[in-house]
Amino acid sequence: MDDFFNYTIFKSGEFLLTTGDLILLFFIFLLIRTLLFGLRKFLYRYFLKRRIDRGRSHAIYLLIKYFVWTITIVASLEMVGIHVTFFIAGSAALLVGLGLGLQQIFQDLVSGVFILIEGTIKVNDVIEIDGMVGRIFSVNLRTSQVFTRDGIIIIVPNHKFIVEKITNWSHNSESTRFKLDVGVAYGSDVEKVRTILLACAHSHAEVLKFISDEDHNPFVRFSDFGDSSLKFELFFWTTNIFNVEFIKSDLRFEIDKKFREQGVTIPFPQRDIHIKGR
Fold first, then answer.
1. Helix (H, G, I), strand (E, B) or coil at 143
2. Residues 109-150: pLDDT tens digits?
3. 273 occurs within a structural domain
4. In whole angstroms, how far apart are CA 200 and each of 109, 193, 205, 215, 219?
5. pTM of the full structure
6. What is the phi/psi pair of residue 24, to 5°?
7. pLDDT tens, 34-78?
């Protein structure tokens, strides 16, 4: 048995790698994976009791995970006789060259650390980036995955969240306000229009209706006298931010139906042409 554990796999100068070293490394990595799995379960249960959102708890777990793995890798290399400090010093020129060639990757890595620490972008956040709306599926050290409304996963380098303007619809609150623009013909009963619009908003299950919170009740604004119509805006709140376009579509269907029933006309642009004879 001693011969098996002391069997030399690789030798270079004073460095010696044996079967026992490989077995020890295997059990160390297995132990760390098991500990991290248990830590993840514990942290998620702890954060759930503290009512900390899942995105924040996931970010904290990732930071702990990367730190533990870094310490484990360095300690494992030292155990088998590979001195990390000597290796880094001896490879300084190579690392400088790699750094110059991999600046973008290092920028993404640093951005990932800032994102995980600050928590400005978290799992399940609904964001708008480059004109695309999606839900954060995962936040990793170099890249993040965004699940779009088309049902596809977009891989986004983390530096885009740092250097570019990102709209996070769900960062401050679970509910967000949206609006619909509606135009009706001149001569329409504007009070009837407001009543219909509010009734349509209140009838939709996904529209928030807080009787005790006036700030989150749907409301209608008479926005302008247009060229061909009286312009109204219907404002509403919802927590179903990711699928808000479906909610808007449902409201448009219902508004069109109620307008037809109540005799309210939605006009189209018209122009009067006067032809003068000679």
1. strand
2. 778 878 877 777 888 888 988 888 899 988 887 889 999 988
3. no
4. 48, 11, 10, 18, 11
5. 0.63
6. -60, -45
7. 988 888 888 778 777 776 666 667 777 777 887 888 888 878 777
- Where in the sequence is the domain holding 81, given as residue range(s)? 2-90
Are 235 and 220 a contacting pair, CB within 8 Å?
yes
Question: Do 164 and 180 have their domain in common?
Answer: no
Query: Measuring CA to CA, which residue among 172, 65, 64, 48 is closest to residue 120?
Result: 172
User: What is the count of structural domains for the chain?
Assistant: 3
Query: What is the domain-level CATH number for residue 156?
Result: 2.30.30.60
Co-location of 162 and 222 in the same domain:
no
Contact 157, 142 (CB under 8 A): yes
Could you count the other beta carbons within 10 Å of the beta carbon of residue 244?
19
Q: Tokens for 269?
A: 């642009």
| 3-state secondary structure (DSSP) of residue 96 | helix
The total number of residues written for the chain in this structure = 278
Distance CA 50, CA 9 (A): 50
> What's the whole-number mean pLDDT along residues 269-276?
69
Contact present, 180 and 248 (Cβ < 8 Å): yes
